[in-house]
Amino acid sequence: MTARAAVLGSPIEHSLSPALHRAAYTVLGLDWDYQAVECAADEFAEFFAGLDETWRGLSLTMPLKEVVLDVVPNASPLARSVHSANTVYRPSPAEPWQVTNTDIFGMEQALREVGVVNATSAHVLGAGATARSAVAALAHLNVEEIVIHARRPTAADAVAKLAQKLGVRAVTADLTPEDLAADVLVSTLPADAAASWMGISAPSTIALLDASYHPWPTPLAQVWARDRPRAPVASGRDMLVWQALAQVRLMTGLDFDEPRVLVAMRDAL
């Protein structure tokens, strides 16, 4: 039987996950099927209950990253801590379904790849599920202090409390653009919402991770690279590739040549 996997969410037509996963399957010589499935939050439990033995994994986008934690019981401590999961997997039908978060790994690797390894301070724009994953990724990079910028103070406070639980000092601020003196800026906002931060003053070497990836470069990333030629810039595409690589590893249970699969995934984009 052909093994099956899919990306679920709503809306889902924009997803690049099918291209990434299918490229990996080709390199690995797997006759697997991977589709995009439109699935609203109130439809997920029924869809999951109907999965047969051919299914190996689900990639989840909004609005399912929180819903899944109430449906699938075996969630990793990391996914529980950030209250966000994007991956459901089982390498074989005999194993129970597991839930985890590979967005954190994706963001961490995207920053490491552009040279962010010794950052001390960071600012995060937004306070949703992606922002919570960003805080965890920054904690893994040993960032010591994070400022959370958001429109809703209660949401910002929740992300700040998460950072503190992860051992990072955190404060909150509103979303009004301000000059920065930090090592990293992470934007989890839609491209148009983050554009207001284009004209701020910041160090010439401050790294940017813009989680938005379509279209790329975003207005913020374009201005960042123009005004700060020495500043590392990572995109949502980089994050997407790394998190998908981790998903393929979990869903297939294979130990494979990572660079070769990465190249195929990036070519597929």
Average of pLDDT = 96
Helix content: 25-40%
Strand content: 15-25%
Poorly predicted runs of 5 or more residues: none
Gross morphology is globular
Number of helices: 11
Structural class: alpha/beta
* Cα Rg: 18 Å
How is the biggest beta sheet arranged? 6 strands, parallel
What's the N-to-C terminus distance? Answer: 28 Å
Order of helix and strand elements from N to C terminus: EHEHEHHEEHEHEHEEHEHEHH
**Spatial sequence of strands, sheet with the most strands:** 8-7-6-9-10-11
In total, how many beta strands? 11
Question: What attributes does this structure have?
Answer:
269 residues, alpha/beta, 5-stranded mixed beta sheet, 11 helices, 39% helix
Describe what this molecule looks like in 3D.
The chain has 269 residues and is an alpha/beta fold. It is built from eleven helices and eleven strands. It has helices at 17-28, 44-49, 68-71, 77-82, 103-113, 129-140, 153-165, 191-194, 219-227, 236-252, 258-268; strands at residues 4-9, 33-38, 55-60, 87-89, 98-100, 121-125, 145-149, 169-173, 184-187, 207-210, 233-235. The strands form two sheets. A six-stranded parallel beta sheet has the order 8-7-6-9-10-11, sandwiched between helices. A five-stranded mixed beta sheet has the order 2-1-3-4-5. β1 (4-9), α1 (17-28) and β2 (33-38) form a beta-alpha-beta unit. The longest helix has 17 residues, at 236-252. It is globular, with a radius of gyration of 18 Å. It starts with a strand and ends with a helix. 45% of the residues are buried. The model has no long low-confidence stretch (mean pLDDT 96).
